[in-house]
Every structure is written in structure tokens, then in C-alpha cells.
Amino acid sequence: MSEAALQLRGACKTFGHVRALQDVNLELHQNEVLALVGDNGAGKSTLVKILSGVEQPDTGEVIVGGEVVRLASPAAAQSLGIATVYQDLALVDPRSVAANIYLGREPRRLGMFVDYPRMYRDAATVLTRLRVDIPTVRAQVRKLSGGQRQAVAIARALARESNIYLFDEPTAALGVEQQANVNQLIEDLKNDGSSIVLISHNLEHVFEVADRIVVMRNGRCVASIAKADTTRHEVVGLITGAIAQAVA
Length: 248
Prior knowledge:
Blueprint: E1 4-15, E2 18-29, E3 33-37, H1 44-51, E4 59-64, E5 67-69, H2 74-79, E6 82-85, H3 97-101, E7 108-109, E8 113-114, H4 116-130, H5 146-158, E9 164-168, H6 176-191, E10 195-199, H7 203-209, E11 212-217, E12 220-226, H8 232-240
């Protein structure tokens, strides 16, 4: 097994009386696509928020590249090479496509002025890589379709040129062709040496791109299985609790 790019050990997280995560251990290997599946409320999004610095665990530790780290904020995660596409997209509607892609990282000239021509060029290049049809990167995000907005959120993560990507339901608002483009992007990122965590309810998508599948239920990881060693039927059983299996 390859060296771990990212690990979560003994993570617990509560919100009031709700225990979102219970003693969760997760390991993402170098150059791996790890699918995280489970029913609504299983703890998947909470786990990703911890790995992206949005939330901090009550107990447990995060390890990046073999080093224990404290992800106190999204900026801290980004500085360690972790880029995230959130389920709620986290876009700024009145701003342009380009401004959203480079939000907080706008290219500068003379050390102080935003270099808009460069930002527009770079944004267009990223969207071309995604094979996304957006007429102009100057368009306000609020005027885009749901699928186009999803593509902008993915493009923002891609533009960071990170080592680790966390995708929370990246194809939820996309059509068939756009979903295929995202699948190809994930394969390209893996081929370039990146490691990816993918949350998805779409098992067809999961079985197309994942190397390994981790099933969550009631805030726990109940199974970790190589895709080649399982079936859709078994994964559905693990998600619903019809099948019980300890983490490998």
C-alpha cells in the first residue's frame, strides 16, 4: 500500500446533542481516488469540513504527509495543498466567474493592483480544461445555471493546483456530458499524481472513478473496501445497515 497523503485518526465531532462523527479513522493514499459514501446524516460532509479546515474535531488528529497538523481554517488547509469543492458551492453571486475562481488569490501587478487581464486569461484556461461552456468569465455567477455554478466551484479548486482534492457531491447539478467531464478531470488529477476524496450518492459515478470505497453510517466508518472487491449491491447493503462489515 502506498504512503498516506492524508489521515484522520480518532476523530469525534458533536453539534449540541448530535454526534456527527464517532471515533473516525480515515486514510487517503498517495495517487488514490477514495469514494466516501453513506446516507444523509452519515457524517460525510462533517468529515470533509474537518479535513478542509471549516470545522475542528472535538478529539482526534489530522495528519498530512506524515505530519500531525492543525487545520484551524480553510486557509490553513489550502496552505498544505488541500483544495475543496463544497456541497453548497460557497460562491459569491454578485462577483464574476473569474473573481470567484481566484477569490482571495487574485493575481497582482506592481504588488497592489489586481491584474484583471491575467485573471480572465487564467480563468478561461481552467474552464477549458474542465470542458465547460460558459460564454464569458466576466459574467456574474448569479446569472449562471446550476450546472455552470457547479463547474465554477470545481474550477476554483482546480486552479489551486493542489496535491489533495476533496469533492463533496461534485456532479449533483450536472448533466450527463458534464458528469463525464468531471469523471475525466478526476482521472486526469490522479494521473498527475494527486489524491482525491470523492463524496457522492451516485454509485455509478463512484464505481467509474474510485479505487477504494469507504462507507459511513451514523457517524462511523463501517467499511473500507477496494472497488474491485465489492459490488453496488454490497455497498448499498452497507449504507443501509442490511450488511454489517468491520473496517478492513
